[in-house]
Write a structure and sequence with these properties.
Number of domains: 2
Largest sheet: none
Structural class: mainly alpha
Strand content: under 5%
């Protein structure tokens, strides 16, 4: 058995973390698909909830690290779905 270097060990760890993250995302998509809610909208709704009722699109964009135009379009899409 060959001894791994630290960088090889770190690479293996990050590879494993990536696989776990991917598996969680697939499971989340499957679960939310039953309710016809995309994962992106879930993050938007979570952010709105955490900021409270006085949240602005600007605050949401800052927290989600997106441009305000992207957040605005997402809000319009979600309003149409209602």
């Amino acid at each position: 058995m060959q001894k791994q270097t630290l960088s090889e060990s770190n690479f293996d760890l990050w590879l494993l973390i990536g696989r776990v993250n991917h598996a969680i995302m697939l499971l989340r998509q499957k679960e939310l698909g039953l309710h016809h809610v995309p994962v992106r909208q879930t993050l938007f709704l979570y952010t709105l909830d955490s900021l409270g009722p006085e949240a602005t699109l600007s605050e949401v964009a800052k927290v989600m690290e997106r441009k305000i135009g992207v957040i605005s379009k997402q809000a319009i899409i979600m309003e149409r779905m209602d």
